[in-house]
User: Which sequence fits this backbone?
DNA sequence: TAGATTGTTAATCGATTAACAATC
DNA sequence: TAGATTGTTAATCGATTAACAATC
């Protein structure tokens, strides 16, 4: 069978990276950043696996989805690998965000300075409460939700953060999609209805507590 | 082989439920709650699968990890199934929480009234800033972190929510463990070091943004 | 009873781990 | 060169989907 293939046949294929792999990348990135700050220049998959409590095999498999970043007999250059994973994650450049909902959670997120360290810059907030419009959180201005589409079309906004009650979330998500937003970080406790090409990441906070609750409860039952 | 087994041999086994199944339970619970509120009394796995955009097979497999909740030819009683999943998740009873860190995120979480609807009651907050001690957020008092162990031993606290900077998180987590806490919802951007029997659920907010960023970036690259 | 739909077994698919030849 | 460790193939494990007999 091999003789029928010519160079490039297989390389052309757009290999789909599994969600599990992508979900692990931020953790690699964090560990490599810490290791780099410790002044360590090189690391083997084995050493990294011990730190991260995963298998060395998984690390090598994960990384080789994106290319060969290591060197036989040597391991990986920490800083280089850190930068490469940053590129893969797309955080080598700035992403402009808007936050919809200037309530407690919206404010907390806007005040969360760690986002900017990773290139995520919050450009504006939106709400409907008259008393909030015009206020500023860390230099980020709150606009009325009516001006949402206008703002998005005038600025380079890639990602919207949705921190509003669930009964309004679906309608606002549709407006975001119509205005051209391609990615939504959804804190509202509902699934959004968006086209296939719009990316949604759900953060349902009470779901995390329920998972804890399950495990706490099953512990006590068996004892 | 079968003739060697007597009744009960297999039933004794403590079947481990996979994490993937448990992670799906809160979503089932949410959909069933909504369906119940619509006044729908029964539903088949097929109908539910259409709503939830999963396979009917997966629903039946998931549920049958915990018992047969349905009836052939009929489907599932919505309210009954809702309650049963609630019991499995351990939210048929109250869980007392404490929140460590009364910053923006800690305040937002304490103000998040949805937790109480699911039986998660925040009993106290802790911080080190003198100007915060004694203040109240929604009737929840802020105590000094020095009194943490004392408070935990005097009250029935199952779960701690950690919303403090990462450089303090590991040390505080150790104190929580020593004080007897069995479950931690960790918002600090670091992995905690805890014994095997302590349950940690990590919520690394910037990781979610990085996952979005990856997908936004890979979209633009291929076009 | 006939039809519907479960509970459960079997088949498939995908992800993780192990093994090792390639090579620095 | 000898030793170390990668990149990658093969083996294993687990999770999802399909199929269908059991049964309401």
Assistant:
């Amino acid at each position: 069978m091999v003789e029928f293939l010519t160079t490039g046949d297989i390389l052309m294929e757009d290999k789909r990276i599994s969600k599990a792999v992508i979900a692990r990348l931020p953790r690699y990135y964090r560990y490599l950043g810490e290791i780099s700050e410790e002044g360590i220049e090189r690391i083997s998959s084995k050493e990294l696996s011990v730190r991260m409590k995963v298998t060395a095999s998984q690390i090598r498999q994960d990384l080789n989805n994106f290319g060969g970043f290591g060197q036989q007999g040597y391991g990986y250059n920490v800083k280089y690998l850190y930068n490469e994973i940053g590129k893969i994650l797309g955080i080598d450049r700035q992403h402009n965000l808007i936050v919809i909902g200037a309530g407690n959670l919206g404010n907390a997120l806007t005040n969360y300075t760690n986002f900017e360290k990773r290139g995520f810059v919050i450009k504006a907030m939106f709400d409907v409460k008259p008393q909030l419009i015009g206020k500023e959180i860390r230099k980020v201005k709150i606009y009325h939700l009516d001006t949402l589409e206008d703002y998005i079309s005038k600025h380079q906004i890639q990602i919207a953060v949705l921190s509003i009650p669930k009964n309004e979330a679906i309608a606002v998500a549709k407006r975001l999609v119509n205005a051209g937003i391609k990615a939504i970080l959804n804190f509202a406790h509902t699934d959004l209805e968006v086209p296939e090409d719009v990316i949604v990441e759900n953060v349902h906070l009470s779901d995390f507590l329920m998972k804890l609750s399950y495990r706490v409860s099953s512990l006590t039952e068996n004892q």
Q: What stands out?
A: The two ends of chain B are 59 Å apart (CA to CA). The longest helix of chain B spans residues 19-37.
